[in-house]
């Protein structure tokens, strides 16, 4: 009997229609930015979670619309007079809504895999956990919406809940996180920020979401879904009070287990993502495992720059490897590449990844390859302006081309760079090589402040 009622709900209720709407909206938003996840499973999982900023309020409104169905048909008193318990009438509609919204969410993820499977060589299992958390959150949204629709069966309820969902899921977390941008001395983001079903943080390709964060979010959202279902089926004030307990207990247990610091603390290093994948048919070129599809694209430019180094630098580096450092974090993921690389190695950041999952080269990538001999992954990862100016001069010297002015230079910086380039190119070629080799030794020893003085005067 229950199965037959469920099939009727799927055929005649709005559950399927709302699920199709969320699938179309979510997929359109997801595919508008395929470059953010192409070729990378974890980035696809995070992108689908980000879509919850729109899908969660939409599902909340869908539940409210479905919840007011009895009142809209004016059969509330009729059903209340029957001997059948209320939960038996609510359950088929709740299951139908949950099944359809989860199916739509999973289909959106599967559509996104068309931009990942052809070029991906690394699959982190935690990506499935991130997707599972998003699916459970949609069930919670639908059931909470049903409870609100039954409690307040008015036309305004569904759109009001959609607006409230956007405020709570989308705008409020951004407001909390923006405090540190305005006030650097502010406390870290609270752990409660991670109760948000949408993932509002950034995640580097070398990172993953901590397992305890996924598990705690899953338990919290399951408790929230339980509260929504119990509220939708509640027939008395006592049952309403009992229905709230799962959400209260879930939040009380979840917050202590979530890390303080919000999304920054939730993102942890993924050693498997940075395991080197190398091409040894010539000077060795390596990329991180998560970027293995980029290896054929990177090998040619990297070997051309290695050849330039061999022609101009004494004891030139003989291999190029992608850095394992997460930008702006000062941390490196220790898997195949140490924090400070050897003298025979140059490191480079990943090039821009296009919508096909392959590299899209630009001037910045080629410039950083040319600057790589005078870079070192020092502990603090910071440079002064003199080090930047030196490397720009050094890159043009290595390429054998005139100095290339930069848009960000002010008149003083431009004058200093031009003077350094004139001094360098005005020296005999053996002295040029000696000074650039000495500057390379200073860079490898993490003395960026010595680079420009060595170029202009020959001494640190």
From TrEMBL:
The keyword Transmembrane applies. The keyword Cytoplasm does not apply. The chain crosses the membrane at residues 14-38, 44-66, 90-116, 122-143, 155-172, 215-233, 240-258. Keywords: Membrane, Transmembrane, Transmembrane helix. This is ABC-type transport system involved in multi-copper enzyme maturation, permease component.
